[in-house]
Structures are given as structure tokens and as C-alpha cells.
Amino acid sequence: MLQLLEKIRIILVNTTHPGNIGAAARAMKNMGLVELVIVAPKRYPDEEAVFRAAGAKDILHRAVVVDSVEEAIEGCGLVLGTSARERKIPWPLYDPRESAAKAKLSLMAGNKVAIMFGREDRGLTNEELQKCHFHVHIPTNEDYSSLNLGAAVQVLCYEMRMAVLADKALQKNHAVTATLLADAADVERMLVHLEQVLVDVKFLESGSSNQVMTRMRRLFLRQQLDAMEVNVLRGILKTIQRAVN
User: Fold this and answer.
1) Hey, how many other C-beta atoms are within 10 angstroms of the C-beta on 27?
2) Smallest Cα–Cα separation from 150: which of 59, 86, 40?
3) What's the DSSP call for residue 3?
4) What is the CATH number of domain 2-165?
5) CA 179 to CA 106: how far, in whole Å?
6) 176 band by pLDDT with thresholds 50, 70 and 90
7) For the chain, which residues make up each domain, given as ranges?
8) Cβ proximity of 17 and 120 under 8 Å
9) Stretch 182-192: mean pLDDT, rounded?
10) CATH number of 184-244: 1.20.140.10, 2.40.10.270, 2.60.40.10, 1.10.8.590?
11) Cβ contacts of residue 177 below 8 Å, gap of 6+?
12) Would you say the CATH fold of 184-244 matches that of 2-165?
């Protein structure tokens, strides 16, 4: 079962302090996770990251640096985003233990799982969070809710390890079914295609900032589509475009 942990990808977005990258690597190695992806860090590579990683330098050496969240989540079937606050359009939200239970079911079905952490000062943007199937909130003390990035990574990695070590997959809230999900990048392309079709049929105005696509994105991500479903939807969208043109 522990090999399932190797299918979990930790993603750090726009990290400001290199020491936090090292601390995240150390937290990962403590719990048996190995895959780290860093999106557009402010300072990296950096000696401070290596120093803070202590005995987890191998995690840093294998880490991949990319320019965008889209690149970071490619190849993943289930994407979790850490969030410290409620959003204007609420997304499915779970605590770390519930999230780990859902992630385990998805891992057992053969999916790669990504857990995305945002900037130290402001977390993930709304746009980044809207690329996630659900959000994870760590229920800290309301009087002192500030949590260091490395500590947040440690909490999530610990819960993932405990879920994997459990004898049976936790069954509470079957929001994640044990099926092989579509690649997050393919789902993203389908959503971009959907928006273009809605513009083509004049349901949306090009460049409009209304909340329709945000709600459509939430709808499809909540369903956790498989590859065949994404292909069918893309086929429907292409047929609509041909009819319109």
C-alpha cells in the first residue's frame, strides 16, 4: 500500500522563500512522498532550500520546476487545492482527513493525485483553485490561524500516509468513486473548448467576466469525469461548432 504515496504529487505555487521549499521536501520525505513540482518560484534553486531540506535533498534533486499550474497538474486525475477561506462561489471543501480518504480511493483506482499549495502570503488564486476537484481546509485555531507552508505540507502528507496505512479505504462521503479519472489537462482543454462553443452560440460574450464558466467548471470538476466522458463531451462540442458554422 505504501507505494500509493509515490503517486501523490505535491505542488508549490509561486513560493517566495526557498527555505519553505526545503521544509516541504523534508515533510514529504518524513511521510514517504517523493514527487515535488514547483511552479514559478521566486528564488530557486537556492542554498537555503537545500539547508532546510536536511536529509531530504534527494526530493529537491528530483523536483521539477514549471512555469504554470496547467503544467504542474498535467497527468493527474484528481487535483486538491488548499484553501484558507470560503470563496464567493463555494467549491466542495473537506478537512485533511476527509481529503486523504477520498484521495486513497482515487489512488487505488490508478489515478495520480495532486495536492496544490499556494503563496505564503495569499495562498492560491481563485483561478488556480477553480482547476481543483475539491478544496482542503486545515481547521486551525481561529485566534491564530496562520500556518507555515512547510507545516501545512506536513499535515496533508501525514494524513495521506495514515489513510494509505489504514486497512480499508475510508468510505465516508463517496464524492470520489474508485474509477480511473481523466487527465486534469484534458479536462482543462475540454472546459476551454466549452467556453469557446458558448461564445460561438452567443450564450456568452467573448472576454466576458461573468460567473457562468466558473459554475460550469465547478459542475464538471465535481463529477470527476473519466477519459471517455471527456472525449464524448469534446465530440458534442465539435458537432455544435460544425452546425453553427
Assistant:
1) 24
2) 59
3) G
4) 3.40.1280.10
5) 7
6) very low
7) 2-165, 184-244
8) yes
9) 96
10) 1.10.8.590
11) 105, 109, 224
12) no
| 92: preceding bond cis by omega (within 30 degrees) | no
Count how many Cα atoms sit within 13 Å of the Cα of residue 165 in the half-sphere of its side chain: 9
pTM of this structure: 0.88
Q: How many residues does the chain have?
A: 245
Residue entry with cell 507552508:
149
Q: Grid cell 460574450 — which residue?
A: 205
Give residue 194's identity as a one-letter amino acid code: L
**Alpha-carbon distances of 91 from 83, 176, 177, 182, 223, rounded to whole Å:** 10, 14, 18, 19, 12
Cell of 220: 464538471
Which residue has 536536511 as its cell numbers?
54
| Cβ-proximal residues to 64 (8 Å cutoff; 6+ apart), any chain | 36, 37, 38
Crossing angle for the helix pair 96-108 and 149-165, to the nearest 10 degrees: 50
pLDDT tens-digit map of 7-26: 999 999 999 999 999 999 99
